[in-house]
Amino acid sequence: MESSGSTLRDRAATRALVLGLLALPFGLLAPFAIFSGARSLRRIRASDGALRGATSAIAGMVAGLVGLITLVAGAAYWLIAS
């Protein structure tokens, strides 16, 4: 799948974004979004412009972090309240 000349979109960046958005309601997916986003960013930076998708990777990582924080805070609240 080629777009915008010779730069290809990193599939892991899209995966990170999808997992990050799914991690918002389903917090258990958050670590996978964070890992996929970080891995994608490393690949994009190492490609010297051959890969793109850093914005999607970062957005997926941020959404994954929000999902993870929500999951941990909810679990802590549940443990303290019970």
Global Rg: 15 Å
The best one-word shape is elongated
- Please mark out the parts with pLDDT under 50 across 5 or more consecutive residues, or reply none: none
User: Can you give the helix content as a percent range?
Assistant: over 70%
- The amount of beta strand, in percent, is under 5%
Mean pLDDT: 93
> Kindly, what is the distance between the CA atoms of the first and last residues, rounded to a whole number of angstroms?
51 Å
- Listing every helix as H and every strand as E from the N terminus to the C terminus, the arrangement reads EHHEH
Count of domain modules: 1
Structural class: mainly alpha
Strand order of the main beta sheet, please? 1-2
Number of DSSP strand runs: 2
What characterizes the major β-sheet? 2 strands, parallel
Number of helices: 3
Description:
The protein has one domain. Helix content is 71%, strand content 5%. It is built from three helices and two strands. The chain has helices at 11-23, 30-46, 54-81; strands at 8-9, 51-52. Strands 1-2 form a two-stranded parallel ribbon. Helix 1 runs antiparallel to helix 2 and helix 2 runs antiparallel to helix 3. The longest helix has 28 residues, at 54-81. It starts with 7 loop residues before the first strand and ends with a helix.
